[in-house]
Amino acid sequence: MLCHRNVQAHSPLATRHSPLATPVTPPLSTHRTRYAKVFLTFARNSLVRDMTFRANFLFQCISSISWTLMNVGFYLIIFQFTSSIGEDTGWGKYQFFLFLATTWFINSLVQAFFMPNAEEFSELIRTGGLDFALLKPIDTQFLISFRRVDWSALSNFAVGVVMLVWSMVHLATRPVDPIDFSLLAISLYIFYVLCGVMIMYSLMICLSATSIWLGRNQTLYNFWFYITNFSRYPMEIYQRSWGWSLWGLFTFAVPVLVVVNVPARILARPLDPRAWWEVPLALFAIAATAISLFVSRWVFKRALGSYRSASS
Fold first, then answer.
1. Does residue 15 form part of some domain?
2. How far apart are CA 167 and CA 173, in angstroms?
3. Is 12 part of a structural domain of the chain?
4. What's the pLDDT tens digit per position in 185-219?
5. What is the Rg, in whole angstroms, of the alpha carbon atoms belonging to the chain?
6. Which of 113, 120, 278, 279 is nearest to 198 (CA)?
7. What is the rounded CA–CA span in Å between residue 133 and residue 144?
8. Residue 133: is it exposed, middle or buried by C-beta count within 10 angstroms (0-12/13-18/19+)?
9. What's the number of domains the chain is made of?
10. For residue 284, what pLDDT band results from cuts at 50, 70 and 90?
11. In a domain, 9, yes or no
């Protein structure tokens, strides 16, 4: 009996059905923790690299903040001649500056975490760096998207925080119809800002993926600026004459108008009462985020399927 038991223990059939021989899939929480650690490593290495050239980092921050302050000055001049952006649109001085702060939040996050990597994607293809990325035991899109962080781009985020608080204080203390900023409104605002970041990221990854088919895509930043420039203003300014075509294109086909308009509208106006179309627009923003992420993932994987290495 003892010998028979030993033979069973060492037989191939016993090994095949042994629980120890069954491959164990790591739980989803462990998978996410591993990716979070990889991202933190990328962020720390990027910060060390930026601090190695501190003067350059400081000048980049000063340049970004100066550009932002010049924009503030420009709009302060405009509001000396008008009380709102558009007649009966509800975008008064402080509502519009809250809108600007939201724009800076989203753009600074995209430019800090995604823009440097998207700009270098064509260089990875040309030099063969993408070959090494494909061999890494990690998702290629994640590696391409997060391997570098431009910390100086977050300087505009800090300016946006100051601008947001300044605008909220004035809206909450104005003598007529002060706004009560509830916890629900602030939570929805943060949620839709993240949705806006994901929509912008999806657009950027689609643009950078075209480098595989085009060989080089040096006009990425210019095209990105042209498209996102439409999202920097309230959507009401397009709802006149031929502007309706731009409104429809950049709301439903390329949903950049919902990126800033939805979160800024939630915080700049009372939650109740709302216009009849604002709730459907907010729901559409969620759907647009999910669709954008799905399409960008499909485009990226399709582009990788066409890649034949740098030596091909």
1. no
2. 10
3. no
4. 999 999 999 999 999 999 989 888 888 887 666 66
5. 25
6. 113
7. 8
8. middle
9. 1
10. very high
11. no
Q: b or e along 222-259 (b: 16 or more beta carbons within 10 Å of the residue's beta carbon)?
A: eebeebbebbebbbbebeeeeeeeebeebbeebbbbbb
10 Å Cβ neighbour count for 171? Answer: 22
Whether 191 contacts 255, CB under 8 Å: no
pTM: 0.85
Which domain does 291 fall in, by range? 26-305
pLDDT bracket for residue 259 (50, 70, 90): very high
In this structure, what is the dihedral angle of CA atoms 274, 276, 282, 283, given to the nearest 10 degrees? 140
Instruction: Report pLDDT digits (tens) over 167-187.
Output: 999 999 998 888 889 999 999
Q: How far apart are CA 240 and CA 88, in angstroms?
A: 13
Is 106:200 a contact under the CB 8 Å cutoff? yes
Residue whose tokens read 């063969």: 128
- Check whether the bond before 270 is cis (ω within 30° of 0): no
In terms of Cα–Cα distance, which of 202, 212, 207 is closest to 304? 212
Distance CA 196, CA 160 (A): 16
Burial class (CB in 10 A: 0-12, 13-18, 19+), 149: buried
Determine the pLDDT at residue 14: 40
Q: Is residue 203 part of a domain?
A: yes
How is residue 66 written in tokens?
A: 């100066």
